[in-house]
Write a structure and sequence with these properties.
The chain has one helix and 28 strands. By secondary structure, the chain is mainly β. The chain has a single domain, classed as TolB, C-terminal domain (Neuraminidase, 6 Propeller). The strands form eight sheets. The protein has a four-stranded antiparallel sheet, with no helix packed on it. A four-stranded antiparallel sheet has the order 4-5-6-7, with no helix packed on it. A hairpin with a 3-residue loop joins β9 and β10. The chain starts with 7 loop residues before the first helix and ends in a 10-residue tail after the last strand.
């Protein structure tokens, strides 16, 4: 798709890949989840946005999130007020705190960037691979060495795709970028297990969520299916979007049915339903036990009995 087109051009295929909300499963908004405990009710924090993504907590207790069509990054302050942080923002999608007062951002305009939280200055961490710009960087996770895993699928990419393939990568602390895989259709969300021995990659056009053993940072083994997402009634191959993990290693994957929660061994523990289909999720709050969900036009939250894992804080 050509960059000059309106945002509806890239949102439509995105929604076609992930949109159905109906569920045949008798699941509550909150309740008791096997192996997890009591999950609180889902509450609206604020709506009125266009398409939300990329929630990320920073050490001061703020939660940053992106509104992609508005080309903006918003900040939920510790006092509960929401304010505009940065606009334009390179059509930022996934965010994560990167240490050293930096917010890391996957910019769908074609680069992985670092944003100074004080000055708001933006610096490029990588903008091309083998001489060509990225398609449209989507999601990321930083490891304890400072290396960054990130995905580069098709959404909002120019046509033909600059990289010719959809792939996921690793940026080493010295700036060298390695392509780790290009065999998934629409690799979207990406996350590490708390011990950083497993890399999770969520394809948006497959029910099968993938996991890779990490041999050393930036080097992975063969992929295997971590879990299969529960499907809306009448559907067989809808995929996930974003994901996060808690300190016990449970994996929270956003999907058509809500946030599907899996144990570290891939067993479904339950599904957190949301009034709008969630695109991504991350932990925040004073004890890091609040799950925030960026769900189309609204930001939602629910309280969990376990804290989220913090990367490189």
């Amino acid at each position: 798709m050509i960059n000059k087109r309106m945002h509806h051009t890239w949102i439509l295929p995105y929604l076609l890949a992930t949109y159905l909300l109906a569920s045949a499963l008798p699941l509550a908004h909150g309740g008791e989840f096997e192996g997890l405990g009591s999950v609180g009710e889902v509450k609206l924090v604020r709506n009125g946005f266009q398409f939300l993504e990329g929630p990320a907590k920073t050490p001061d207790g703020s939660l940053y999130f992106t509104d992609i069509p508005n080309d903006a990054i918003q900040r939920l302050r510790p006092d509960g007020k929401i304010e505009l942080f940065l606009q334009p923002a390179g059509h930022a999608n996934g965010l994560m705190y990167g240490g050293e007062n930096r917010l890391l951002a996957c910019q769908m305009d074609g680069q992985l960037a670092a944003i100074d939280l004080t000055t708001k200055s933006v610096s490029s961490l990588t903008s091309e691979y083998q001489g060509a710009r990225y398609n449209a960087c989507n999601d990321l996770v930083i490891d304890r060495t400072g290396g960054i895993y990130f995905t580069d699928p098709r959404y909002r990419a120019p046509e033909p795709w600059p990289q010719k393939v959809e792939a996921f990568y690793y940026r080493q602390p010295d700036g060298t970028v390695l392509r780790l895989g290009s065999d998934l259709t629409a690799p979207n969300g990406i996350m590490l297990s708390p011990d950083e021995k497993t890399l999770y990659v969520v394809p948006s056009m497959s029910s099968r969520m993938m996991a890779y053993d990490i041999i050393v940072p930036g080097k992975i083994g063969m992929g295997h299916v971590f879990c299969e997402l529960q499907q809306p009634s009448g559907q067989t191959n809808t995929g996930g979007d974003g994901l996060t993990v808690d300190i016990k290693g449970n994996v929270y994957i956003t999907s058509n049915l809500g946030v599907q929660v899996f144990s570290p061994n891939g067993k479904l523990l339950g599904i957190i339903e949301c009034p709008e289909q969630p695109a991504n999720a991350s932990f925040g709050g004073p004890e890091n036990k609040t799950l925030y969900m960026t769900s189309r036009t609204g930001l939602y939250s629910c309280e969990l009995p376990v804290a989220g894992h913090l990367f490189r804080n």
